[in-house]
User: Fold this.
Amino acid sequence: MNRTWIKIAALIMTAMAAGVGPWAQQNSGKFAPPDVVAATDISYPVNTTTTGMVSLWVSLDTNGSVQNIQVAQDIPPLTAAAQASVQKWTFKAATWHGKSAATPFPVHVVFNPYNPGATSIGGGVRVPAAVPSNQVNFMPPQVREASYAFYPPNTQAEGTVVLSVSVDKSGHSSDIRVVRGAHPLTDAAVDVVKQWGFQPAMRDGAPAAGRLCIAFVFQRNLS
Assistant:
């Protein structure tokens, strides 16, 4: 039994008990998922060429404040950098019947390899193991297939692009909002996320629309 998803399921159930306990009895009500409002830059750790996706489940209270961050996919030394920055971000709490609700919010941070001119970077991005959606009454969307972004040709730009991604009940990204951009890298991040595969959110055993956050940390080649 996977200890990571057990911890995440426990986090979700704790959040539900704090703010959205009536879901099972009122599944026809209107639910608005949590969202990221503002984000700071994520520093690429120095003296490392490690790449990959760090996946975090951020527990938000009814004010949208970060209460806990559970690591769903750990990639040392990248995880600490992601956690330190996400802790400072501004989030908006979910609402249920017009009232704020405590919920978990997935944040995936891709530390992207330097690949100017769309040079080959080989393979996709490893994604975290799925959290069984039958463990709780609500499960946010999950990433099931991911790939790296290609740097635009003729650029040595670096920085962090943070995207708020809406996933419909069919598992497709239906809306991508730029929370933090880094010209000219923003378009590259948006374009690749449109190709990712998602598992839709689940509410009371049925697919539902949801939202998650995907960030790309771009660093120019320093070698």
